[in-house]
Amino acid sequence: MFKKILIANRGEIACRVIKSARKMGIQTVAVYSDADRNALHVTMADEAVHIGPPPANQSYIVIDKVMEAIRATGAEAVHPGYGFLSENMKFAEALEKEGVVFVGPPSAAIEAMGDKITSKKIAMEAGVNTVPGYMGLIEDAEEAVRISREIGYPVMIKASAGGGGKGMRIAWNDDEAREGFQSSRNEAANSFGDDRIFIEKFVTQPRHIEIQVLADKHGNCVYLHERECSIQRRNQKVIEEAPSPFLDEATRKAMGEQACALARAVGYTSAGTVEFIVDGNRNFYFLEMNTRLQVEHPVTELITGVDLVEQMIRIANGEPLPFKQEDLKINGWAMESRLYAEDPYRNFLPSIGRLTRYRPPVEGATPTGGIVRNDTGVYEGGEISMYYDPMIAKLCTWGPTRAAAIEEMRLALDTFEVEGIGHNLPFCAAVMDHPKFVSGDMTTAFIAEEFPDGFQGVALPEPTLRRVAAAAAAMNRVAEIRRARISGRMDNHERKVGDDWVVSLQGIDFAVKIRADRGGATVEFADGAIMRVESDWTPGQSLARLLVDGAHLVLKVGRITGGYRIRVRGADLKVHVRTPRQAELARLMPEKLPPDTSKMLLCPMPGLIVKLNVAEGDEVFEGQALCTVEAMKMENILRAERKGVVKKINAEVGSSMAVDDVIMEFE
User: Fold this and answer.
1) pTM attached to this predicted model
2) Rounded to a whole number, what is the distance in angstroms from the first to the last CA of the chain?
3) Chain segment 374-388, per-residue pLDDT in tens
């Protein structure tokens, strides 16, 4: 076995590889840029080598610098993680020349699967299902109809030189194929000066399902079942699970066998993933093969018990697989939520800054019979850099059933404390409670269809509000008793804590009567409903773990005047607990309106002004570009929402802006 491995990566995946290597008794070498000098993967590794400035193209993906680190430390093998150099054929070849083992597939397999056309051709030759289509020249509408019939409706008629939706039609029958062919041809000629058309199968109700494979150097190849990755935003996976709630045993077996056939066809070794698109009738078609470890590999590990990183290292060392296909059973269900440093309330704009609080749930077995796992590369007090991927952590849960795994994830998300930056924890929590997700009936269009206007927060259903209200009433009583027992009181000034309270949240008032005992509190609502609340929460704790009517409830708690800020299940609530008289008076108070910012251009994210398109006194129109802000190496053009005149510009090119800084004002 190798004595020393270098990890050519950073963040959570570098930490993940270090954990398996340490378990195997292998020393590890980390590489780091200036921005990652104090990163978690650097402190976890046995050795660390500095390889350059923060931008990845000057450090992590510079092959020569990584090779220098290998030579300096005497590493015998390199694990590339995912991203960066993980699918770089030149890097694999450089390691081969140096006599260093690449913990991944042969360079020829990387090359073959890295080219979309070549990989599809190899897949077809290996008997893997590909999207049916006709790529040759189509002469006229009647030929288009004949080809469409052979492929099977519905079909997608597309311009060969197309883009932006131009020259594209979906046809469900012969008439639509004739019309669509002519329309696409005309649009293509007018838009691109090229009227060539091709036709392929249109996949309805598409789901993104991938198969994990492992292949050794002795001709053995197995599949470790599938992962459902349909919950995506702009092609970026957000929630993954294993197995898929959609596949039956026959489809799973067929997909797995085809994935292994493709791996054998390219002489694949190590861990790899074959991605498929699956339609509503469980027809599946090859998309691509990722010749590396996937981000979402932990859910496969949780349902199979196989450490994929360990197996990658053992395969690279020439060892045969220690199991056969029949040994790989599906045990329970696993979920993964990707925690990103992006603000869901601002259309998921990147958020950078310091993690003033970072308290993930405790890993391992849970009181409810599940498992929690958190793969991360950050720590409390660390900084989220503008130079790299915004992922903070991968929160995973396991349960014996899908419903149990979802409930474990709900509790884990409610337990996860992150402060100092914008993050998508509330959005992940909202997905876990969405009826379509809970049913398992979702496609890759889930987020676009269910959140068309972005994420505006969560309105909790009435039963959940009642549970939160009961919890808040019980917590308030604990706080009131503490205040009533303060030392140093004047004689005859003893304070009595009443039993009647009104809990106000999300625009609803709940009148309750509370009775406490040594074990907890009994909360009675005005309609006669009774809830039992038990907890060891004390005032000042930011996390409250409670049993409400025997069911677990976890609340993130902050103090506000007259109550609490409570965050749970994706909702951010102001909860006021008042006496009946206070509640009566509160209803008479005028509601404070937010400030009017309609005549201001606010900076939506921390960033740098790189261009100003207008000057003071200019008349602007709806949709006109006003300025460009650069954040996380991406340029964002800010446009006018309505017609107006620029009154004042508060920034200049080169100005560094914070969130909600006023860039310009309008008359």
Assistant:
1) 0.87
2) 72
3) 999 999 999 998 888
